[in-house]
Automatic annotation (TrEMBL):
GO biological process assignments: translation
Alphabetized UniProt keyword annotations: Aminoacyl-tRNA synthetase, ATP-binding, Cytoplasm, Ligase, Magnesium, Metal-binding, Nucleotide-binding, Protein biosynthesis, RNA-binding, tRNA-binding
Main location: cytoplasm
Keyword RNA-binding: yes
Gene Ontology molecular function: any one: aminoacyl-tRNA ligase activity
Cofactor(s) listed in the protein's UniProt record: Mg(2+)
Source species: marine sediment metagenome
Name of the protein in question: FDX-ACB domain-containing protein
Amino acid sequence: ILLSGPRSEQHWQEDDDSPMDFFDMKGVLTQMFENLQLKEIDFEAVVHSTFHPGKCASVKIQGLPIGLFGEVHPLVKSNYDLPEYPVMVAELDVDAIQPLVPDRYNLVTVPVFPPVLEDLAMVVDESISAEQIANLIRKTGGATITDIKLFDVYRGGQAGPGKKSLAFNLTYQNPDRTLTDEEVARIRQKIVKHLDKELGAQLRS
């Protein structure tokens, strides 16, 4: 899989001409795995000579290594006739993935009750990955957390030396009723408490 170029097509009204990056590729892979009904997906930062330092990750499904992806290193990129934009590449072992895809799965009805969307920004050590944060949010929030998206990574300034801020968009939803503000606040408080206890993460003010 290869990604490169502006994030969206030009439009007379509005367009986002910022280049696609590492997180766009991660989003594509995550969506693909979810569509295949694959579970226990883990991304782990790795170092590989083909890829830009700090922008490469391996992929495991149910503990089985199935590939890696990242932004092509500028020195590697200079050897080929590639676009000026950053180039993201993912190499996946299809033969390893295929046996993990379930033959059948249960369909979930379209939710009747509205979701609650909320942003959560946590300051963590550089060694803590976004995947660690997301996994603990899922574990703590349970079935009420139906979606988690990383939308911002910030370093410097208020984050402090050796730290980074990871901002997530969380979707809370109950299939049987509308969640109250108080219920969402309790779940959020529980998540923040567990992130602090397990990973030393602090809520960004």
